[in-house]
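Need a sequence for this fold. Nothing fancy.
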């Protein structure tokens, strides 16, 4: 099926992935770059997407949060083994609104809310008991109250400038379709595998 709009194509592929992937079809790799040019990748969960971009949430003081703050660009990669497909996405990163971040944080399980407060993500700790003590401390702190979103925790939206759809084919003759945003219009190009 041919698409002029890559977000519609992504939506079609993602719906198929939700039916065929055994776990976490929304898992994606996020790649960022440090100020000295060192790339770094990690897996996160996409929480939403639309024409404005792809959203994930994180501790803004984490390595990825700091790298995005200094260089607000990233690359995403979805890989759905069961379908033999991958989608690569590159673009600019923007913060979500406070209202959007607050609403998503409020929807998280209480343990995950406490974990957001308790984990100094990407910072060194002496042993696992440091995290356990921090979780216990915040559990006591919030024992009888609603847990508000930490000021250092929020959502980020990657606004795509380029999407590549890759479909496995026999003899490594894979199909590669690239959509690039040029003057606010998507231009589709086929690439050799």
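Here you go.
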């Amino acid at each position: 099926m041919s698409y002029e709009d890559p977000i519609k194509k992504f939506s079609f592929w993602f719906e198929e992935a939700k039916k065929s992937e055994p776990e976490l079809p929304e898992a994606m790799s996020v790649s960022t770059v440090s100020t000295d040019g060192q790339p770094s990748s990690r897996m996160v969960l996409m929480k939403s997407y639309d024409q404005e971009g792809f959203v994930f949430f994180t501790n803004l003081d984490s390595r990825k949060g700091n790298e995005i703050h200094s260089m607000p660009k990233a690359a995403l990669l979805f890989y759905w083994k069961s379908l033999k497909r991958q989608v690569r996405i590159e673009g600019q990163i923007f913060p979500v609104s406070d209202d959007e971040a607050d609403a998503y944080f409020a929807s998280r399980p209480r343990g995950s809310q406490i974990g957001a407060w308790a984990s100094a993500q990407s910072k060194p700790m002496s042993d696992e008991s440091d995290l356990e003590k921090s979780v216990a401390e915040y559990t006591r702190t919030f024992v009888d109250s609603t847990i508000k979103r930490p000021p250092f925790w929020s959502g980020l939206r990657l606004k795509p400038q380029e999407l590549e759809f890759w479909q496995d084919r026999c003899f490594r003759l894979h199909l590669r379709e690239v959509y690039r945003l040029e003057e606010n219009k998507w231009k589709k190009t086929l690439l050799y595998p």
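For context: The chain has a mean pLDDT of 96.
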